[in-house]
Design a protein that fits this description.
Length: 461
């Protein structure tokens, strides 16, 4: 690839010269697919000193959802020197190029930042925009007594001459608008320049449309990749569940025998002997293993939910009563807020209780020397038309290491010597089955788990 300085731009009005310029532009468009770079190339090409076309250019793109013209970029002649011509020595085989450094310089000017704040309502009172969208032709500011929109307020005071706005049309759609003016010299924009700008804008419109389509395809591709990964993850989890279920089944029977015989030994051995202590250890470890295997089996089974109207306030109070002695032993201070009313959800009270118990047990594990555990219930954002309740459970146990946060809801992820790593995976599954969500984050003191559930109704609010 050869690089040469910007070629002498022909004076617009000269047909051969204009066609050469458009040809170069079309080569550039074919090799530039990123929208951001494209917008810089478009505006730099028409403001660069060698083109001698315009001293300033602004690009607006249409936001189809809100039907608003959104300021994207503004370039002045001082910052458009970096355009290079690369490729063949033959001008018809060459294209424009611009460095990342110049792109970032152009973006960070006050002018460009100001442009990015401009929003113009397409159906608003601006006469220029009405004319532009109605006629789809370039429009001179002098022809219209418009002072109403942000563009007029922004450009008119700094521009002694007129400005020209041209629509970017592609397939009958107006994708955006380019506005040009000459604020330094105050030179009027000639008809020849306006005509050239119109041809240029047609090409720019097509290039922008292609780039937007490419972006949409890329986004769809990423979504598809994401969905495929989630599917694979789901399949892997199902396979793990199956293996775990088989393993648990094989292990349970011998464990029952070991536990049973160890229990008999324990009864027959005199207390205060080492043998009694050994048998006692076998019995308690076997019962811990049995409990763990039970949990794994429960996780690998397809859960069934018995939906009924239940009150979260009651469920939480129930859990707190069950754990009262643990809190006392661990010197953990409990606080509850937002339990003044009834937070009714449609769900399985037994399973929801399991969620809160798993979270409470985790919190107790990280606060062996005491701490604070708070429960806050509040109204959440509407989810698919339904009101929601948010339960936030916050501890003061130091939090979860940042790199572990994405993994804690994975089955079998644990940092504990005797943990199965299923507590949060089970909680997550239960909440998802209740059409809610559970998230974890760190606070200044510890970890916070936020559960959002669709609300059946709230009485006595
Ligand atoms: N409140 C918390 N503070 C700090 N880390 C936590 C907290 N809750 C969970 N974790 C981390 O997340 C991991 C997974 O928790 P999870 O409840 O799924 O499994 P576990 O507690 O290790 O084992 P199990 O609950 O199956 O006995 C824990 O091992 C711990 O590292
Ligand atoms: Mg746990």
């Amino acid at each position: 690839m050869t690089t040469h300085d910007s070629s002498p731009y022909p004076e617009p009005g000269n047909r051969v010269a204009e066609l050469t310029l458009l040809y170069q532009f079309s080569n550039t468009m074919l090799s530039t697919i990123r929208l951001n770079k494209l917008t810089h190339l478009i505006l730099t090409a028409i403001t660069t000193p060698s083109s001698n076309l315009f001293e300033r250019a602004i690009l607006f793109l249409r936001n189809e959802k809100s039907d608003v013209l959104q300021g994207m970029l503004g370039i002045t002649r001082q910052l458009s020197e970096g355009l290079q011509i690369v490729g063949d020595q033959d001008i018809l085989g060459s294209r424009w190029e611009i460095s990342d450094e110049i792109i970032s310089r152009q973006r960070s000017t006050d002018f460009s930042m100001h442009v990015r704040q401009i929003r113009i309502d397409i159906d608003g009172p601006c006469l220029l925009i009405h004319k532009l969208f109605g006629e789809r032709n370039p429009c001179r500011s002098d022809d219209i007594p418009c002072q109403t929109c942000q563009v007029c307020h922004f450009i008119r005071p700094t521009c002694s001459g007129s400005f020209v706005a041209v629509p970017l049309v592609c397939h009958e759609n107006i994708l955006g608008v380019i506005v040009v003016d000459n604020p330094d010299s105050g030179r009027n924009i000639s008809d020849a320049h306006v005509n050239f700008l119109r041809l240029f804008a047609n090409q720019a419109g097509m290039a922008i449309e292609n780039s937007m389509l490419y972006n949409r395809i890329e986004e769809a591709h990423l979504n598809l990749k994401d969905a495929r990964e989630r599917l694979l993850h789901g399949e892997r989890m199902a396979a793990i569940g199956e293996v775990a279920a088989n393993l648990v089944h094989e292990l349970k029977n011998p464990l029952v025998s070991i536990g049973g015989f160890a229990g008999r030994l324990l009864k027959s051995l005199p207390t205060e002997t080492p043998q009694h202590h050994y048998a006692d250890t076998i019995v308690s470890e076997v019962s811990r293993l049995e409990k763990m295997l039970g949990e794994i089996l429960a996780f690998s089974r397809k859960p069934t939910i018995c939906f009924s109207r239940c009150d979260l306030n009651e469920i939480i109070q129930d859990c707190l009563t069950n754990c009262a002695t643990t809190f006392e032993d661990h010197n953990i201070k409990i606080s509850v807020s937002g339990c003044d009313g009834r937070w009714s959800v449609s769900g399985d009270a037994h399973q929801l209780k399991q969620v809160f118990l798993n979270l409470i047990l985790n919190a107790c594990d990280v606060m062996p020397e005491g701490g604070e555990l708070s429960f806050t219930l509040d109204t959440g954002e509407t989810l698919q038309g339904k009101k929601t309740v948010i339960v936030c459970i916050e501890d003061s146990g130091g939090g979860i290491r940042k790199e572990m946060l994405p993994q804690i809801f994975n089955p079998f992820f644990t940092t504990k010597n005797h943990g199965t790593g299923l507590g949060l995976a089970i909680a997550n599954r239960i909440i998802l089955n209740h059409l809610g969500s559970i998230e974890a984050h760190n606070t200044a003191k510890g970890a916070a788990f936020t559960i959002t559930l669709p609300l059946a109704e709230r009485i006595n609010s």
